[in-house]
Amino acid sequence: MVVTPGPANLFAIAVGARLGRRAVLAAVLGMNLATVVWLVAAGLGLSALARATPGLFRAMALAGGAYLAWLAWLGARSLIGAWRGDAREAHAARAVGRRAFRDGLMVQLSNPKALLYTTVVLPPFLDLSHPVPPQVAVFGATGVVLDVVVMTAYGFSGAAIARRMNGERFQRGFAAFSGLMFLAIAALIVLRT
Question: Looking at per-residue confidence, does 158 or 44 come out higher?
Fold first, then answer.
């Protein structure tokens, strides 16, 4: 599931293209901390809770869509600032570290694919005749390793594209494209819930 397109993949590429490799590593760390949160929740019975309170998970999906729309807004502001030649906006767009980590964490916490994986895909693979936490730990560790490799590759690919296409025009176009994609994903999340 980690390879299939979704909010986290697009986010990793956008971070790489806009903020560089160092920010990708921070964002991937944030995304995988969120994955660990989802896996702990799965080990504690998240799928049973999801079946018992579907409204709560619908609300979480809507909140995730709103967060992606907010990221799209930030991208649009950055784009407008670049058009105006606003140095503060350009500097803010290159900030790394805590912001990339926080955004990665929030993207993955609000990612419908993460919820789907932990509540629908993972449970059938668990053998209930054996202790569940060690099984979730093995599945989780495997998933996190795969996610780190794949998301880092996506992010570094975004950074490589940005280096090759380092022109201001490309940067503006990519900011607009990623903002539109985040907005489209947010709309799909809202429409599906």
Answer: 158
